[in-house]
Amino acid sequence: MSKEFATRAENYSEWYNHIVTKADLAEHAAVKGCMVIKPYGYSIWEKMQQALDQMFKDTGHENAYFPLLIPKSFFSKEASHVEGFAKECAVVTHYRLKNGPDGTVIVDEEAKLAEELIIRPTSETIIWNTYKGWIQSYRDLPLLINQWANVVRWEMRTRLFLRTAEFLWQEGHTAHATSQEAIEETERMLGVYADFAENWMAVPVIKGKKTANERFAGALDTYCIEAMMQDGKALQAGTSHFLGQNFAKAFDVKFTSKEGKQDYVWATSWGVSTRLMGALVMAHSDDQGLVLPPKLAPFQVVIVPIYKTEEDLLKINAKVEEIRKSLISKGIRVKYDNRDTQRPGWKFAEYEFKGVPLRIAIGPKDMENGTVEVARRDTREKEVLQMVDLDNKIEHLLSQIQDNLFQKALSFRDQNIRRVDTYDEFKKTLNENPGFILAHWDGTAETEQKIKEETKATIRCIPLQAEERDVKPGICIYSGKPSERRVLFSLAY
Amino acid sequence: MSKEFATRAENYSEWYNHIVTKADLAEHAAVKGCMVIKPYGYSIWEKMQQALDQMFKDTGHENAYFPLLIPKSFFSKEASHVEGFAKECAVVTHYRLKNGPDGTVIVDEEAKLAEELIIRPTSETIIWNTYKGWIQSYRDLPLLINQWANVVRWEMRTRLFLRTAEFLWQEGHTAHATSQEAIEETERMLGVYADFAENWMAVPVIKGKKTANERFAGALDTYCIEAMMQDGKALQAGTSHFLGQNFAKAFDVKFTSKEGKQDYVWATSWGVSTRLMGALVMAHSDDQGLVLPPKLAPFQVVIVPIYKTEEDLLKINAKVEEIRKSLISKGIRVKYDNRDTQRPGWKFAEYEFKGVPLRIAIGPKDMENGTVEVARRDTREKEVLQMVDLDNKIEHLLSQIQDNLFQKALSFRDQNIRRVDTYDEFKKTLNENPGFILAHWDGTAETEQKIKEETKATIRCIPLQAEERDVKPGICIYSGKPSERRVLFSLAY
């Protein structure tokens, strides 16, 4: 394939944009900061949704839908929430247009809202305002609800999937009778996210807690999963928040316990978004294009016929129909591309670029020999396989690819986690070997802020699972003050 | 069950609101005109989505996602579209809030958008603006895309599901090389909607074309399906539009044909919304509450244990676990409610009100006899069934209920379609026997408008399938002028 775009080494950012747009995942919309998710990209997102939705239901959650528009005053009700959220928002001020001069339309100034409405940047406020009517007694708890929705957070500098003004996500909002139950839920959903990232996306993640600085606005604790991209930067792939009684107090949501006592309800919220699409691209793709884990690929196998005559094609068509049926019966997603408007070489390049896990080619020779040529996208290896028992072999190969992608990402990540003990070493590592850095920190917001200002690196999390050597006391790399344990630093998306 | 709300006969509108709110389908949100779709209601909507989505995919469509916000100027590009749509819209004028006095937030007047953005009331404009970049050649056609999304149309008088400022829907937007193909697509999707309404919702529909007056803004032809509610009023349950080349011309979307000629692309759009939830409620429910067709019920069977001692309950639990498994293996959705916080009578009333198609009760006597008591929601009949082969019997009953609901709605509708030949008779029928009226109309917008003003009845459609006697010429009931055929009038939601 002719080199027509930047490699990862040359320009990671340009490489990423090229993959996302040319593999038909998404493109910039006419509206500043927004994106169009194209059918191929949306199909991957749908598979993510289906898997996550099932995991949510398996853990007892139900879906519901709350309004897109939130009265402005709701944001003032939870003091720290407003600081973090109500700023860069889309504000609806009018509800009518009218004809202007020369066939244009203009805003009808007479149709001005008494109170402005905000397009939800997240839904805690409107949901807790609703929960007030739903929760009276301990019998109404736990309330385990999820919403699939679009949200808008005004962004000036946007990147497809990673940071856009509008994005798609799910937001779970649960209510519990005790602090302990709410914390368990927060951790359970973090576990669901980690499970999904590793077993569906083939992206290894580190589970941890955010520092106070990086907490969700209104949360007592924010848990996260952090993944490493191929340029060594971190990407926060999901968050789960323990909200304590903050929102219950702000919206006056109380319940009567079994013992007849009144108390405020305990809350969690948790979400992942189309940002995961960006993580998926950056974790696995290579200089030849997109690489998709089989579990999330729109189609897992593409079959391309190689033929000279119409007669050959008809024979191949008949054989492929058999193969296709046996693959489908195994639950494998197959596409047969026998369009005569494109040559096989073009198709090979196309599906390679689009990251289809397996390509099967069948020509007249194969028909004679009862074979097919199978090419793996992840390793780019080809092999000739007998048609006999092909469905089992393909099923096995797909599972191997899924596993290989995870192992490759895991070993890359583990090779790029470093322990450093001085600030000089810290800065040098960020410069020369970007990756995750485990270092001592004195626990203060000031030090965290200084390090961020000077190096752009942030504390991604305080890992929940750590080696013994990482949870021993030490000396803060920046201040020289005592530190309880190492925390995880990185440059991040 | 004690009578605590209006019957259909007493107050149809109050009855409807009571069912929707008390059966936990939806409620009014804190934001004027918006609704919260509650978990039980959303679960029905999810089942509608799944069935429709599969039907769209089976007819070759792919999903994608386009921005929520549309630049105001886009609405001026298609002249008739702007008349119909760009008026009652939510207008975004600012993108930032800031701290106001006393912990409030206020709009930051410095963050005013150069061009206002409109929350999509429908997406033709933004989608056709995008298609311009996707379509160059006949090879790019047909383009068959669907979007699941929320839309906002400002409404002053709202009713849950039937008319809300924000609602959920799907909108298909397709592009074709010829007028003929686009018309075929328009009709195909109308067929999909009719199939869904009849075979999933158990609601019979009349397929037809709208008059010019009632066409979608920007369409050359609007097709619709019209269902009859139990009060005799019509509800438009889905529309499919042939848009001609209007949007292609407005957004300059041309393609090069096989022969190398340039032409504008032909378009369709089609949609159904959460309005279908309203249709579902009003078509089947009765004075005892919601009645759900089994195919769309969140759970199709609820099992309630009847017991005095803990020992009895344990035995019943074990037996129910067997029953539950065998029902699940048949793909039947089952809920077992053995909560000890509510008595059986309360549970019976609860699930009756929520429209669960079948209720199974098991008590100690049943355990001895190897029987269960099964109650149908649609007919409210009870029968005692042997546990042996129960899964097949239940499967059969569910299919009977689905069929019975359809037949009942069909016979109600057919009894309430009347032919009238004079305007007096027309008005009398509307007054005394509301339903569908087949009457002659002179084909003019003036007459249509006059009839609407004087009686509130509208031409629901010009039916695609009609009896021979209805497509013969006659005399317009209003003007006395010649009429080509009878058209379908009704009061409507």
Please describe what this structure looks like.
Two copies of one chain form a homodimer. Chain A is built from 13 helices and 27 strands. The first copy, chain A, is an alpha+beta fold. Chain A has three domains: 12-93 and 120-284, BirA Bifunctional Protein, domain 2; 301-397, Anticodon-binding domain (Rossmann fold, 3-Layer(aba) Sandwich), CATH 3.40.50.800; 417-490, C-terminal domain of ProRS (Translation Initiation Factor IF3). In chain A, helix 2 crosses helix 5. At the A-B interface, strand 2, helix 2, strand 3, strand 4 and strand 5 of A face strand 2, helix 2, strand 3, strand 4 and strand 5 of B.
Largest sheet of chain A: 11 strands, mixed
Average pLDDT over all residues of chain A: 96
Supply Rg of chain A.
26 Å
Distance between the termini of chain A: 30 Å
The CATH class designation of the largest domain in chain A is Alpha Beta
CATH architecture of the largest domain in chain A: 2-Layer Sandwich
Features:
homodimer, 493 residues, alpha+beta, BirA Bifunctional Protein, domain 2, Rossmann fold, Translation Initiation Factor IF3, 11-stranded mixed sheet, 5-stranded mixed sheet, 34% helix
In terms of topology, how is this protein built?
2 copies of one chain form a homodimer.
Chain A: H1 12-22, E1 26-28, E2 35-37, H2 39-58, E3 62-63, E4 69-71, H3 79-85, E5 91-94, E6 97-99, E7 105-107, E8 112-119, H4 124-134, E9 143-152, E10 166-176, H5 179-199, E11 205-209, E12 221-228, E13 234-244, H6 246-250, E14 254-256, E15 262-264, E16 266-273, H7 275-284, E17 301-305, H8 310-329, E18 334-336, H9 344-353, E19 358-362, H10 364-369, E20 371-376, E21 382-386, H11 390-415, E22 417-419, H12 423-432, E23 436-440, H13 445-455, E24 458-463, E25 474-475, E26 482-483, E27 486-490
Parallel strand pairs in A: 3-9, 17-18, 17-19, 22-23
Antiparallel strand pairs in A: 1-2, 4-8, 5-8, 6-7, 9-10, 10-16, 11-12, 11-24, 12-13, 13-16, 14-15, 19-20, 20-21, 23-27, 24-27, 25-26
Helix pairs in contact in A: 2-5
